[in-house]
Amino acid sequence: MSLLNAIVSPGFFTSGPVLTAAVVGGGAAIVSGLVALLLRVYSGRTPAEIAATDPVFLKNLGLLEALSTNRGNGIAAMARKIREVAATAA
Predict the structure, then answer these.
(1) What tens digit of pLDDT does each residue of 13-30 get?
(2) pLDDT attached to residue 66
(3) What's this model's pTM, rounded to 2 decimal places?
């Protein structure tokens, strides 16, 4: 199971808060930190709130420019996928 699959698995979507936990392991510390940032932003929110929360904060914080291309694309893709799955659950 990939990290992204763990984050957006159906078990995270309930009638209450949406994103409540994630399985993170085996990756680089920076990847775990980036996932923790996404969890901080999206955790405990309803699907509608997640879908409405644009991941522009990644750019505003300067993260996308500071990370390698692969990591920047990866974190942006995770944020998009979280919002996409939330939008279908909203």
Answers:
(1) 444 555 555 555 556 788
(2) 92
(3) 0.72
Between the alpha carbon of residue 58 and those of residues 5, 13, 41, the distances in Å are 21, 23, 11
**CA–CA separation, 56 vs 26, rounded Å?**
27
- Torsion sign (Cα): 34, 40, 43, 49: negative
Q: What is the pLDDT of residue 2?
A: 44
How many structural domains compose the chain? 1
The CATH number that applies at residue 57 is: 3.90.1010.10
Residue 73 structural domain: 3-89
Q: Name residue 38's amino acid.
A: L
What separation, in Å, do the N-terminal and C-terminal C-alpha atoms of the chain show?
25
Q: Residue 13, Cβ neighbours under 10 Å: how many?
A: 20
